[in-house]
């Protein structure tokens, strides 16, 4: 039987074997929520890069460029890290370069050895569940966390995925069990459950409560972003 595991932070990724695994990267607040939203709204591709410099270089080649550090937009770039920025007409058909504090770094770490890299958020939970059920590989949910530390919202998403897939996958390690049990505890009121978490407080100081509320909604989009080469595209 296939296995599902959870890595609570990219700093622990070296402890996991990725050779037979699909890695699902989750950065709920807000990178992977932006990626799912953008592709649902007609973005052609998203190229995640680890550094601001790489993102700038792609911007100079004509990409729309999104750069975020410490939850704020980096000066000189076209887009920030709010999902609502990916709902405008200017993104339709666009190739976007994106760098964020945690999410794109997690993708960069995973892509060297994983069989496939997919992107997960509550927004595309059902679509992702259906796709993973049809795959033959193990699954590792990589929580982007915050600067190497675990965070609540990504762990909750990992738990939601574990709960949905528990009949098709064995939850072998405690990371998966912890995430699943946490989700079961909080699933009836996710906004309330994360209300005093560190990243929610960080975002609220910036006045972006609407991003938090939006990103905790399940199954808004039937889209699964997958990494093809260096680009995230919608899996068809």
TrEMBL record:
What Pfam families does this protein map onto?
2-ph_phosp
Swiss-Prot/TrEMBL cofactor(s):
Mg(2+)
Molecular function GO terms recorded: 2-phosphosulfolactate phosphatase activity; magnesium ion binding; sulfopyruvate decarboxylase activity
Which UniProt keywords are given for this protein, alphabetically ordered? Hydrolase, Magnesium
- Catalytically driven reaction(s): (2R)-O-phospho-3-sulfolactate + H2O = (2R)-3-sulfolactate + phosphate
Establish whether keyword RNA-binding is in the entry: no
Q: What class of enzyme is it?
A: hydrolase
Q: Does the keyword Magnesium apply?
A: yes
Matching InterPro entries: ComB-like, ComB-like_sf
The EC number(s) attached to this protein equal 3.1.3.71
Check the record and name the PANTHER family matching this protein.
2-PHOSPHOSULFOLACTATE PHOSPHATASE-RELATED
- Family according to the record: Belongs to the ComB family.
The protein here is known as: Probable 2-phosphosulfolactate phosphatase
Whichever gene encodes this chain, its name is comB
